[in-house]
Amino acid sequence: MSDEKQNEQRHAAYAVQRFVRATYRVAVEALLVNGEARGRVLSVLSEPAFEEMAEVYGTAHEQPGRLDEVSFVGGIPGEVVDVEVSWRLPVPGRKRSRRIPPPEVRVKDVIESSYLRVTPHCVVFGACGGCQFQHLSYAAQLVWKAERVRDVLHAAGFTNLPIETAIGCEPPWEYRNHMRFSINREGRAGLTARNSHRVLPLRSCPIASPHINAVLTLVADVPLPRPQMVVRCSDLTGHTLVQPAPTPELQSRLQAHEITVRETEMEERLLDTPFRIRPSSFFQTNTRQANRMAELVLAGLPQGEKITLVDAYCGVGTFARLMADRVGRVIAIEESASAIRDARWNLREVGNVEIIQGKVEEMLPEMSGRLDGLVIDPPRAGCQRPVLDALLARHVPSVVYVSCNPDTLARDLAYLCLQNVGYVLRSVHLLDMFPQTAHVESVAILEAL
Q1: Closest C-alpha to 220, from 187, 196, 242
Q2: Which of 205, 383, 404, 417 is catalytic?
Q3: CATH annotation of 178-270
Q4: Are 200 and 188 in contact (CB under 8 A)?
Q5: pLDDT tens across 44-85, in order?
Q6: How far does Cα 59 stand from its chain's mean position?
């Protein structure tokens, strides 16, 4: 069978996708750490027949009993809402999967509304997997995120927590300078539905930069190659990066609207310092907040001609470049070969930065000489134990820990400050890098004892 024929059959199967649905009245009791609401079922408004559920689960699977609680996006504690729960039926003619997909849950009606509720900006909010908090006032979002950090630190053993006032993003919309859109079978760009590979076609996204939305609007009626389209932009330089490279026809269409597309690299600025970014580069997706983060990091570290600082997990060399103008020497460590290439380019005219390619957990323990301060920005998994042990052994006087995961931040800070009593936690700054979502970014300032 030809690939074209197989694709036609897959499309036909997708088009006849069927669902079994139920409706419940739910009391919202809590917001989970992933931003979903947890609700207790008060009553059943409609429920599928046993035969319908048997079609969902098949004879080889045990059917679940009546739902007692559900989790979904779009609820606020204290509310009463009606939700629709949808179980996807197997596609006719396709082998049944051993794993039964979880049901999709969406809010149909708000029966008793919280005073914290606002109208979402996006027509696909709740279905799209991108945002969790568009229905929650922005002030309430900041309170929730501050409590999230406070709760995990308290659970880790910290008392008298030095948590500063949350630094919000104003406005909390149109901030993302980097978006990855999926392309559906018709060649239309969009974002994937929650817990699904289904693409929700879009002409704009309320959290995306106006530059990105301009591109998205212009490509909405143009068939695009699958599977994805990446758009990155800079409000400061006006550069727009699109991958894969647009066709000549699309390129002309974008240029007619004064959008000049760069295909391999672009320039972004942080604290008025230029950085080269390529499609594979990691760079903060919220430039407004990234500037404030950089200011917090620099303020937490010593400066002077005799000072040596370390930028661990340096990426494209962002912090290393900003620190280089303030101290005598900077050591930048990064494992990724692609990021190292960018870092070398961004630091090519800076003479006091040494770039080391390797794993931080291997390089830091082997380093010799005095270290006066260190900034560490690890992945969501946090620091590996050799990194923390090296900080304790070296007794680095000042450490700035940038974290995108409150749970691993609390774990690592407890190891440094409580279990080994090598550092004191001076302050924790909550920086809202991703408004309308449950993601939490923090900057912790530590001082060696």
Answers
A1: 187
A2: 404
A3: 2.40.50.1070
A4: no
A5: 999 887 777 777 776 545 555 678 999 999 999 999 999 999
A6: 39
Is 404 a known active-site residue? yes
Is 100 within 8 Å of 56 (Cβ atoms)? yes
Q: How far is CA 34 from CA 71, 86, 145, 402, in A?
A: 10, 21, 11, 20
Fold of 142-170+287-448: Rossmann fold (3.40.50)
- 267-276 pLDDT, tens digit per residue, is 999 999 999 9
* Main-chain dihedrals φ then ψ at residue 310, nearest 5 degrees: -120, 135
Q: Which residues, 6+ apart, have CB-to-CB distance to 196 below 8 Å?
A: 104, 129
Domain spans, the chain: 3-117, 142-170+287-448, 178-270
| Count of positions (residues) in the chain | 449
DSSP codes, 153-207: HHHTT--S--BPPPB--SSSSS-BSEEEEEE-TTS-EEEEBTTS--EEE-S--TT
Write out 70-105 in H/E/C secondary structure. Answer: EEECCCCCCCEEEEEEEEECCCCCCCCCCCCCCCEE
